[in-house]
Write a structure and sequence with these properties.
single chain
């Protein structure tokens, strides 16, 4: 992938977002590290990005707030003059059965995932003019498979994947490719928020043909591929990175 590209990674302070930011930096991309709450983690990510010999720029923004999303991309345009890559990764949710979700929970997850993806894409595409931009959304296998306590997140991710297809068609004439990467059970600190996480991860690893659960670095490698020229003919697809977990009955 060409060096000197500019990438925005939302929710880049830790976990999957951090891994994506570092992988893009290793490929020669300058990285805008977005975070919402944990500035310390974001600063560590930015320092690691810079250690790869590229620029890093921190922007605090709540992806649920349209004004803050617009301000983020205005800042990117002002500093870098354009944008090549958007990775919509920021995630937050409530782990409850569907019957226990409130309207507030629902709105929170829909605003954090599909709506934030839409708002980011709308703001990013004008900055990609003439640059053959790449947009990648980060989804999860819960969009297609039922997972305990994951109803709201699963529905939000399913909406995000549907939006990926619509944006891919709409933005293709502008030279922008849009895809998504869907992770299986990815071993991150977010799992600590789910009941009996360790036992669940061990069971998933046992049932995964690859013999282990996916890591943030596995997801980052798939994102990097979709942002490369080798993926130019891949549009509106959801690339599943789960070690084959979703294959057996």
């Amino acid at each position: 992938m060409a060096e000197g590209r500019v990438a925005v990674v939302t929710g880049a302070g830790r976990g999957i977002g951090r891994a994506i930011a570092l992988r893009l930096a290793e490929s020669g991309s300058h990285v805008v590290v977005n975070y919402y709450v944990n500035r310390e983690a974001a600063e560590k990510t930015a320092a690691e990005v810079r250690s790869r010999g590229v620029r890093a720029h921190l922007v605090q923004a709540d992806m649920k707030d349209p004004a803050q999303v617009r301000a983020l991309f205005d800042e990117v345009g002002g500093i870098f003059g354009g944008l090549d890559i958007l990775v919509s990764n920021a995630a937050s949710g409530v782990f409850r059965d569907a019957g226990a979700l409130t309207a507030k929970h629902w709105d929170w997850m829909m605003h954090t995932h599909p709506r934030a993806f839409l708002l980011c894409a709308q703001a990013a595409v004008p900055l990609m003019r003439g640059r053959r931009g790449r947009i990648v959304a980060v989804s999860s296998i819960g969009s297609q498979r039922t997972i305990p306590n994951y109803a709201g997140m699963g529905a939000a991710k399913a909406a995000l994947e549907s939006l990926t297809r619509y944006l891919a068609v709409e933005y293709a004439p502008l030279g922008v490719a849009v895809n998504a990467v869907s992770g299986g059970a990815v071993s991150t600190t977010s799992w600590t928020e789910m009941p009996e996480a360790d036992a669940a991860l061990a069971d998933i690893a046992r049932r995964t043909p690859a013999g282990r659960v996916a890591t943030p670095e596995d997801i980052a490698a798939a994102v990097l591929f979709l942002c490369s020229p080798d993926a130019d003919m891949i549009r509106g697809q959801v690339l599943v990175v789960d070690g084959g977990y979703s294959l057996p009955l």
